[in-house]
């Protein structure tokens, strides 16, 4: 009986391993200094079946300031009609307004980074994804210079049903640092 169990376990293991090995992935690495260019390139990749994988902003290996996005797709899987929007703003009010406009259209949060502009500002850059039959999203942007204040604001937002997504430290054009949190509530 133990031999049959061992043979069955080995057979299942080999079957699972070969099915895992059979799936292959393709990637596209997008890098640019302009957020509008990044949005266009992400949507071109989405048309080819790629989906958002990750984002990073900062200094590239060549020394320039870039936003880098990795897009991925499982080979043989069809495109799902994804669309992307990249929002970049140095003012939290502008960020809130643009996020909510996208949320009203059903765009979901994917990732966030800081993009350093040529003028020395540090813009919060957020990538949002829209899929067919997406639900409306209410976004909330919280910003403060004190972490203790952020905790209070997060607790209040959580009591209101908002889910925490991400936090970054942004620097305004005027030299001030802010802790910026993004939250969401998905509505039917």
What is this structure's SSE topology?
Layout: H1 2-22, E1 25-32, H2 35-47, E2 51-59, E3 65-74, E4 83-89, H3 92-104, E5 108-116, E6 122-130, E7 136-144, H4 147-159, E8 163-171, E9 177-187
Antiparallel strand pairs: 1-3, 2-3, 4-6, 5-6, 7-9, 8-9
Structure notes:
- The protein is α+β, with helices and mostly antiparallel strands and 188 residues long.
- It has one domain (25-187).
- The chain is 32% helix and 43% strand.
- The chain has 4 helices and 9 strands; from the N terminus they run H-E-H-E-E-E-H-E-E-E-H-E-E.
- The protein has helices at residues 2-22, 35-47, 92-104, 147-159; strands spanning 25-32, 51-59, 65-74, 83-89, 108-116, 122-130, 136-144, 163-171, 177-187.
- Strands 1-3-2 form a 3-stranded antiparallel beta sheet, with helices on one face. It has a 3-stranded antiparallel beta sheet with strand order 4-6-5, with helices on both faces. A 3-stranded antiparallel beta sheet has the order 7-9-8, with helices on both faces.
- The protein starts with a helix and ends with a strand.
Question: Could you write a compact summary of the structure shown?
Answer:
Helices cover 32% and strands 43% of the residues. By secondary structure, it is an alpha+beta fold.
């Amino acid at each position: 009986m133990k031999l049959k169990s061992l043979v069955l376990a080995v057979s299942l293991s080999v079957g699972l391993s070969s099915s895992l090995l059979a799936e292959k992935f393709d990637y596209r690495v997008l890098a640019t200094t302009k957020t509008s260019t990044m949005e266009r390139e992400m949507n071109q990749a989405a048309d080819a079946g790629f989906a958002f994988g990750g984002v990073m902003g900062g200094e590239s290996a060549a020394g320039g300031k870039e936003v880098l996005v990795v897009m991925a797709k499982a080979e043989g899987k069809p495109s799902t009609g994804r669309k992307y929007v990249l929002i970049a703003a140095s003012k939290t009010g502008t960020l809130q307004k643009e996020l909510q406009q996208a949320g009203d259209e059903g765009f979901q949060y994917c990732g966030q980074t800081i993009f350093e502009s040529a003028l020395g500002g540090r813009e919060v850059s957020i990538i949002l994804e829209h899929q067919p039959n997406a639900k409306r999203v209410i976004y909330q942007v919280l910003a403060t210079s004190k972490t203790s204040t952020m905790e209070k604001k997060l607790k209040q937002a959580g009591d209101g049903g908002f889910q925490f997504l991400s936090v970054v430290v942004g620097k305004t054009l005027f030299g001030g640092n802010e802790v910026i949190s993004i939250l969401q509530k998905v509505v039917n």
